[in-house]
Design a protein that fits this description.
The complex is a heterodimer of chains A (about 120) and B (about 110).
Chain A lengths: L3 E4 L2 E4 L5 E7 L5 E8 L3 E10 L2 E4 L7 E2 L9 E3 L8 E8 L10 E2 L3 E5 L1
Parallel strand pairs in A: 2-11
Antiparallel strand pairs in A: 1-3, 3-8, 4-5, 4-9, 5-6, 7-8, 9-10, 9-11
Chain B lengths: L2 E3 L4 E5 L4 E3 L2 E3 L5 E7 L5 E7 L5 E3 L5 E5 L4 E6 L8 E8 L6 E2 L3 E6 L1
Parallel strand pairs in B: 2-12
Antiparallel strand pairs in B: 1-4, 3-9, 5-6, 5-10, 7-8, 8-9, 10-11, 10-12
The chains are: A mainly beta (about 120), B mainly beta (about 110).
């Protein structure tokens, strides 16, 4: 089954404790992206990747890191989480990106609480 | 700056009634336009998309959307709403390149 998986689905952590949220897709997509969803703000793009070893900032990249060492995986790293990063996070993938009209496929989301 | 506006934070519709969700965008040219639906506890699923051609676009689950260039709008419609349509709906714009801009979402409640 074609899908985007994220782990963990739920995470509670404390300020400053490094964490990684994994994202994996099995569709051989070149493009992957991370979003955060906050009430009243919709989804905001954090980082995206056009292919292996190629990443770029979205609209809200501060406090986040990403890497794309393999085509299927695109982990999101919070080196020193803060309470304002409490949010619902979505990973998405598509063959070439929405900018050429392609559909993005979304993971189920990771709900993060930073105390 | 590019932006997407969904003026209605939430809408309540009776089951069987028609539905229209509004979306306006700010962008110089015609971008790629999308509507996604998010059911409770789920990720987002594409309903439909537009980038050229016929301005009335048909999607899944009986939804359609109409692109109006003069109004910079891409409103989502459904002639008869079912209880299972209760969800949050997001309009999104991809102005080119690799970024996507989402609206704040409209939560749909369906009355029995």
């Amino acid at each position: 089954e074609a899908q985007v998986t994220q782990n963990p689905r739920y995470l509670i952590t404390v300020t400053g404790k490094k964490l990684t949220v994994t994202c994996s897709q099995n569709m051989n997509h070149e493009y992957m992206s991370w979003y955060r969803q906050d009430p009243g703000l919709g989804l905001r793009q954090i980082y995206y990747s056009m292919n292996v070893e190629v990443t770029d900032k979205g609209d809200v990249p501060e406090g986040y890191k990403v890497s794309r060492k393999e085509k299927r995986n695109f982990p999101l790293i919070l080196e020193s989480p803060s309470p304002n990063q409490t949010s619902l996070y979505f990973c998405a993938s598509s063959q070439r990106g929405a900018g050429v009209g392609e559909t993005q496929y979304f993971g189920p989301g990771t709900r993060l609480l930073v105390l | 700056a590019q932006s997407v506006t969904q003026p209605d934070i939430h809408i309540t519709v009776s089951e069987g009634a028609s539905l229209e969700l509004r979306c306006n965008y700010s962008y110089g040219a015609t971008p790629y336009l999308f509507w996604y639906v998010q059911s409770p506890g789920q990720g987002l699923q594409l309903l439909l998309k537009y980038f050229s051609g016929d301005t009335l676009v048909q999607g899944i689950k009986g939804f359609e959307a109409e692109f109006k260039r003069s109004q910079s709008s891409f409103n989502l419609r459904k002639p008869s709403v079912h209880w299972s349509d209760a969800a949050e709906y997001f309009c999104a714009v991809a102005p080119g390149g690799f970024k996507t801009i989402f609206g704040a979402g409209t939560r749909l409640f369906v009355k029995a």
